[in-house]
Amino acid sequence: MDTDYRLFPSFGLDLDTLPNPISVPTEAGELDDGALADELGVHRSDRPYPERVLWQAFAYTTFDPRDDTPPELTQLETGHIVLRKESF
Asked: 49-63 and 33-40 are packed helices; what angle lies between their axes, rounded to 10 degrees?
């Protein structure tokens, strides 16, 4: 399969300071994107609505507990986060 990528804002994250692997909180077998944001220090209420929606897209695309394909995250000098994954 070809590897594809998605580009996301930084959400205030510094990937170098995050635990690896990241513990992914779930509720009833589904990703709890709110708890994940809290765990990683992402203050969603401080962000504009479009960025909050992008957070959900980032969280579910990257950390979906039903997807066994490991994500590859890279942070650009601009702070943007590049997500590479074979299962797009």
From this structure: 100
pTM listed for this prediction: 0.88
What are 9's two structure tokens? Answer: 């804002």
What is the DSSP secondary structure assignment for residue 39, as one 8-state letter? H
The helix or strand, by DSSP H or E, that contains position 38, with its residue range, turns out to be helix 33-40
DSSP β-ladder status, 72-75 and 81-85: antiparallel
Kind plus residue range of the DSSP H or E element containing 56: helix 49-63
pLDDT at 31: 96
- Omega of the bond prior to 9 within 30 degrees of 0, cis? no
Pick from 6, 4, 9, 16: which is nearest to 78 by CA? 9
